[in-house]
Queue: 2 jobs
Job 1
Amino acid sequence: ETGVTQSPTHLIKTRGQQVTLRCSSQSGHNTVSWYQQALGQGPQFIFQYYREEENGRGNFPPRFSGLQFPNYSSELNVNALELDDSALYLCASRGMNTEAFFGQGTRLTVV
Amino acid sequence: RKEVEQDPGPFNVPEGATVAFNCTYSNSASQSFFWYRQDCRKEPKLLMSVYSSGNEDGRFTAQLNRASQYISLLIRDSKLSDSATYLCVVRNNAGNMLTFGGGTRLMVKP
């Protein structure tokens, strides 16, 4: 497979709670980006990290935040969960002059 | 208007048919273009990059028309295993964001 791993694979949270999703990038890839995919829609760009700095952000509120660690793994944090946050969250990694490879995703359900 | 637009389908075709998908994008400064394939409840996987000169990979042919901001994918001799959602994807000129279309669903029937 792609070498990009995400955890957990499934998660159920209650409205108002906070969640942390994790991603390990493919070996040699220093860029990680996160996407939200609602049912029946294409993935929407949340943000990207390059060498531990955020270097691009989509149209998502500040309660969506992230981190990238020195080993290039990454976390996505979502605070004050809303029902509409229920989606598949995808992490993608890429290196210099390579295309983006996606992890299998974390399916988040907010009840 | 969405930045990347695709016909959602579904396209229902018999095995062996030729099927074409189209996509338009709104940002003329976009840098790179791709087709991804996504199976049900799985992650998107890169099918092929798209170049202005057109490119072919086996039964799959992709074309890019920068003047019309139009991308196409042609699948020849469809197989049952081609059933999936095909996502048209554009990377911005900063190289830090992929914008996806909503996807076109293909169902190949015996």
Job 2
Amino acid sequence: AQTVTQSQPEMSVQEAETVTLSCTYDTSESDYYLFWYKQPPSRQMILVIRQEAYKQQNATENRFSVNFQKAAKSFSLKISDSQLGDAAMYFCAYRSGNDMRFGAGTRLTVKP
Amino acid sequence: EAGVAQSPRYKIIEKRQSVAFWCNPISGHATLYWYQQILGQGPKLLIQFQNNGVVDDSQLPKDRFSAERLKGVDSTLKIQPAKLEDSAVYLCASRSQGRGSPLHFGNGTRLTVT
């Protein structure tokens, strides 16, 4: 079974600084997608960024970017110029076909 | 476009009672998921539908949980009888058929079993 591991239960960052959240996954598939979701206290999961495994170029969405290392099965999220509104739970997710799996999450605190 | 709608937002019941959750996915999304999220954990898939057919229900505790998606649109998830360990947030999500399409989530239902 495919597994997704987030080894950092909690992270904190100073406002305006940069933080990196780690994620590793295990799969034998070659065609898959990776996602980062943000879950604020309102509970709704919001898509932050996605990466297609067959694309070598790292995805970027404004202040959010990923470091995708396919051989190492690593998919980290970098948040630049952190803002107070970035404080939330962040979940790494993997999807291949109909199989969608989530990591346990990293709670990000942003200090003013 | 309207998002995924879920109701109720909160529910408190006593153990051994029954409860039902409702989900209306984004229009046109054929795939619908129900996830259970226990406090401090990531979402765990309970059941996945493709239109009105079940794709994966391998982690659904079928002795007490049931779900249906009549007409391939709305879906209901039922628990009967509830146990204390069923206390969690129940998330509904849907996605379109595109290869890399992400899941779109509703606001979830927080269930407390006392």
